[in-house]
Structure to design on (238 residues):
């Protein structure tokens, strides 16, 4: 069975956006700071809605924030 | 990274929800310890007495309510308005994982209690062998307390490791 993995560039993007904190991002997208931490650490794949909200915060298309890797 | 920095990072990473769960876990563990130690230290007469047993259950309920109320009052003072925020999808998923384990333990407890009751009626099993009256009731109470503890532990573990997919 193939394994799916979604990585992201949120940590870099936060840094490039005036060093936005995890808490600020969490408040902007309506989740907890722990959820942002889990997403950044690739331990949790966000819902489509949250993913779009994150992309909207950074004013970027979704694929610039999240990358999909298919591994065997 | 120094140990001091590690501790600071760890404390900063603790959410209000984790703190609430930890307090719930501590309260449940204490209640479980109180109940089991009361049973362990009870005499045969006390174990056979319905009034002693009902007073013990009343104490368990009273302690639970009082400790929960006190801990939540304490948490209200230190909360960063997190009490008013609804759970996000990830936290709801973690909740469901906790409930799943809780349900399994409760189901097992009920099944063991029913089996125990049947065995007792037929004059065999541990209740007769070790002369423990009301054993099915104790099994159910213990299963309830264990289910609570397990649910809190699983929620804390899943929340911390982030590994919520099962």
């Amino acid at each position: 069975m193939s394994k799916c993995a979604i990585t992201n560039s949120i940590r870099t993007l936060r840094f490039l956006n005036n060093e936005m904190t995890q808490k600020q991002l969490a408040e902007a997208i309506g989740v907890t700071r722990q959820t942002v931490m889990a997403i950044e650490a690739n331990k949790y794949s966000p819902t489509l809605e949250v993913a779009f909200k994150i992309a909207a915060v950074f004013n970027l298309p979704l694929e610039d924030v999240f990358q999909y890797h298919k591994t065997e | 990274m120094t140990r001091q920095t590690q501790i600071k990072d760890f404390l900063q990473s603790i959410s209000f929800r984790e703190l609430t769960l930890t307090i719930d876990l501590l309260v449940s563990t204490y209640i479980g310890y109180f109940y089991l130690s009361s049973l362990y230290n009870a005499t045969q007469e006390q174990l056979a007495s319905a009034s002693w047993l009902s007073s013990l259950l009343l104490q368990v309920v009273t302690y639970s309510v009082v400790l929960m109320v006190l801990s939540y009052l304490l948490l209200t003072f230190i909360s960063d308005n997190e009490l008013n925020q609804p759970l996000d999808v990830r936290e709801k998923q973690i909740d469901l994982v906790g409930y799943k384990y809780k349900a399994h333990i409760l189901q097992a407890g009920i099944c063991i209690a029913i089996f125990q009751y049947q065995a007792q009626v037929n004059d065999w099993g541990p209740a007769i062998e070790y002369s423990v009256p009301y054993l099915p009731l104790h099994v159910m109470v213990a299963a309830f307390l264990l289910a609570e503890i397990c649910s809190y532990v699983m929620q804390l573990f899943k929340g911390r490791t982030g590994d919520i997919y099962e």
User: Anything to note?
Assistant: The domain at 3-64 of chain A is CATH 1.10.260.40 (434 Repressor (Amino-terminal Domain)). The CA atoms of residues 17 and 58 of chain A lie 8 Å apart.
